Amino acid sequence: MEEHNIIQKKLMNIFNGHTPRCIPLQRRGQTFEARVCDDRSGFIVSNLGAPIDRRTNSNYLPLEVFYVAVGLLLEKGGEAIKGNVYNNRLGDDGLPLDSVEGIIAHKVYGKNIGDIVFRRISPVNGILLASEICQGTRGGYMMLSGAFRNSPKSHSDQNNQ
Q1: Cα separation of 138 and 94, whole Å?
Q2: Disulfide-capable partner of 144 in 77, 105, 121, 148 (CB 3.0 to 4.6 Å)?
């Protein structure tokens, strides 16, 4: 899908080969490291304090996570709530299915309404911010940046001019 190719190119452009990159979290002064997997299927993140997938003790974020997140943001007009996994289950008011955390948990990790969800929003948001697909916001929202608000295709066309 062309949209996925554009997102993947934008994500991969922030890395120099497979060299880890220090990416800031939205909390002032804190960072995590991310690097592209050897097969370019996603990212390995570290320095977050806990694995991304505690069941497998893995710090792997597949590209599908970013395709789903950007797809939701496009569907919602460029802005969506992040979702809060603390003291919420998928489908609760704090973690609706149409939040970034909720849709990733459901579509990528196979979680269902009522399931407990592991927190992945910090590295997802950080990588999307570093790649300039999203822009920084305060509060519990994520927002697409610039031309990505209309479509990734228009962003690609803008970069080719």
Answers
A1: 17
A2: 148
- CA–CA separation, 105 vs 54, rounded Å? 13
Region 92-120 average pLDDT: 94
In the chain, the number of structural domains is 1
Helix (H, G, I), strand (E, B) or coil at 10: helix
- 159 — pLDDT class (breaks 50, 70, 90): very low
Enclosing domain of residue 93: 2-147
Question: Long-range contacts of range 47-55, CB-CB < 8 Å, 24 or more positions apart?
Answer: 48/122, 48/123, 52/118, 52/120, 52/123, 53/109, 53/118, 54/118
The model's pTM is 0.86
Give a yes or no: residue 158 inside a domain.
Answer: no
- 118 belongs to a structural domain: yes
